[in-house]
Specification:
This protein has helices spanning 27-36, 97-110; strands at 8-10, 41-52, 69-74, 86-88, 126-127, 135-139, 144-146, 154-164. It is an alpha+beta fold.
Amino acid sequence: GENDEGMLDIFNVDYEIEAVQGIKDDDGIKTLINGAASEHYSPDNINVYYNKEVTDTRDFHADTYGGKYKAFVYLTDVPAKSYGPFSYIPGTHEVSTIKQKSTSLLNRATGNPSTDAVFYDKDEAIYCTAPKGTLIVANQAGYHRGTPQEKGHTRILVNTSYTPDTN
């Protein structure tokens, strides 16, 4: 009965699977993120998301209102919306203090997480359908979600989170 029921989020796979350990050191991805950001980012962890027939997903939301990017690669083909592609609403990463506080207040009143999307146009969402091997990089302050899947469809991806350097 919960959103994302059936999704497996397998944490820190780089600790156990040697083949993915080098992803954290990929200079191309770090250069891409640091070129888009106003501060320097470094990778934190590598997870695998395994979604099989997840028909009820969390609606649009931000992971945080500052300081987080995710870079992920589809490990399976995601050729249509029925496979549950990552979706994103461009421009929503630009959060004003007023928007952030009013969103948090409305969510508190309705019992929803503080970063659930309130002010957005669902019609502006882009759906990242793509073949396996596709790299997607997203600012996690922007509204995003994995869309619901139809029965018989699976989406697997490897994900690296990036946060600002503390040095």
